[in-house]
């Protein structure tokens, strides 16, 4: 079992006392769908790719899932097909416990979403599935079962899933969930997994209910700018905490009502701009087909938004998983824990370059989504320069010129995105 804590001296995580970037793959349906053999093969691959955590929903997402007859169910099923929240199935949690024990053995930190928004009053998810809203008593009993089953494995708890926090009912209910997690499992870190573009309200974020900030940049319109907007907004919160971009674009996920699918290049853009905007503590990755553990020919309830998922065994092999594994290595090797975007220092750029600086240790980072020259209104001649061709996952040797108090990074000579680091 790994112990995950917050570094008292920096906005980052410590795993077993050592600084670490929390790189989490997403398999929301882990407790419902994969076989034991599939689960082990999945963990082995993701570990090789550089992941050290996995995002899981304790309960299935009712409105957004692949499904097949005979799946594991968390509660007794009534004759009409609904769940009886007062009759939890102990075999469900027992199986989930065994799965998490296996994950821990493979070096993974489980990050568990306790209650997706469907199960909480006053949420948009509850409006979709009103028969699945838990009472206060059922909520408390569910939280207690989750803590009793998993807390000793060193899991991280995300109280919410995909919620906007626009209704006092949902804010109050999630506050009570966080308080119960804090009181029942004081050694386990807590956070929220909000809906896209959402900054959590002060009553949830400013006290001791959460240990770090999580956000979701979204998969559709504005997916390319929201990582910076959300990350920078959280970096400016009254209480400084580590920031994790928990759900940037999923690789293979549809967007624009069928206009296209997110590629590995999109994943790299959303992931690296998240880090440059202050999300140096961790990142979520998702492959469309892995997170619902989809199999060919199965119905998928979220097709209208996401598109038909790829089979899980196909989506597992998407290239973006290797890209974010490299991201983790670079962040850890170069101590990129606390970057802050500085768009005003980019004075000549045509490609949407993102530039950020960090005071301690002294760092600057430039992300180029396309190969164009960039001029920075900053003299970085005293810094060491290193660079990566992110599309090829290779180191590069950029041409950088200095003069007149400015830094010019000449156009890279390949058709891919680039990361240029300046180390003081």
Automatic annotation (TrEMBL):
Residues 12-337 form the Apiosidase-like catalytic domain. SUPFAM superfamilies: (Trans)glycosidases (SSF51445). Pfam families: Apiosidase (PF13204). InterPro entries: Apiosidase-like_cat_dom (IPR025277), GH (IPR017853). This is Beta-glucosidase. It comes from Dactylosporangium matsuzakiense.
């Amino acid at each position: 079992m790994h112990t995950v804590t917050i570094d008292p001296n920096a906005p980052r995580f410590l795993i077993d006392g050592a600084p670490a970037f929390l790189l989490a793959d997403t398999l929301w349906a882990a407790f419902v769908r994969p076989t034991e053999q599939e689960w082990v093969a999945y963990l082995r691959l993701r570990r090789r790719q550089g992941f050290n955590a996995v995002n899981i929903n304790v309960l299935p997402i009712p409105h957004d899932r692949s499904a097949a007859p005979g799946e594991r169910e968390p509660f007794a099923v009534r004759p009409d097909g609904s769940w009886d929240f007062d009759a939890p199935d102990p075999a469900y949690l027992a199986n989930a416990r065994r799965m998490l024990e296996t994950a821990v053995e493979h070096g993974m930190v489980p990050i568990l979403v306790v209650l997706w928004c469907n199960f909480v009053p006053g949420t948009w998810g509850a409006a979709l599935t009103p028969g699945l809203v838990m009472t206060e008593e059922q909520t408390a009993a569910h939280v207690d079962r989750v803590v009793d089953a998993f807390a000793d494995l060193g899991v991280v708890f995300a109280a919410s899933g995909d919620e906007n926090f626009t209704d006092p009912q949902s804010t109050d209910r999630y506050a009570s969930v966080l308080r119960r997690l804090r009181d029942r499992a004081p050694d386990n870190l807590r956070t929220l997994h909000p809906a896209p573009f959402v900054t959590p309200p002060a009553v949830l974020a400013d006290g001791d209910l959460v240990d770090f900030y999580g956000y979701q940049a979204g998969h559709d319109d504005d997916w390319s700018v929201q990582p910076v907007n959300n990350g920078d907004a959280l970096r400016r919160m009254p209480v400084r905490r580590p920031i994790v971009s928990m759900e940037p674009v999923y690789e293979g996920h549809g967007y624009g009502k069928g206009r296209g699918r997110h590629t590995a290049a999109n994943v790299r853009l959303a992931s690296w701009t998240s880090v440059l905007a202050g999300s140096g503590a961790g990142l979520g990755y998702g492959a469309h087909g892995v997170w619902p553990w989809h199999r060919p020919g199965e119905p998928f309830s979220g097709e209208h938004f996401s598109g038909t998922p790829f089979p899980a065994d196909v989506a597992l092999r998407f290239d973006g998983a290797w890209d974010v594994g490299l991201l983790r290595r670079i962040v850890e090797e170069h101590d990129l824990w606390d970057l802050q975007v500085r768009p005003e220092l980019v004075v000549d750029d045509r490609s949407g370059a993102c530039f950020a600086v960090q005071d301690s240790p002294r760092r600057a980072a430039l992300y180029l989504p396309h190969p164009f020259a960039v001029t920075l209104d900053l003299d970085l001649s005293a810094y060491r320069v290193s660079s990566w061709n992110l599309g090829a996952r290779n180191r590069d040797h950029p041409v950088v010129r200095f003069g007149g108090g400015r830094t010019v990074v000449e156009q890279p000579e390949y058709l891919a995105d680039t990361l240029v680091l300046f180390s003081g």
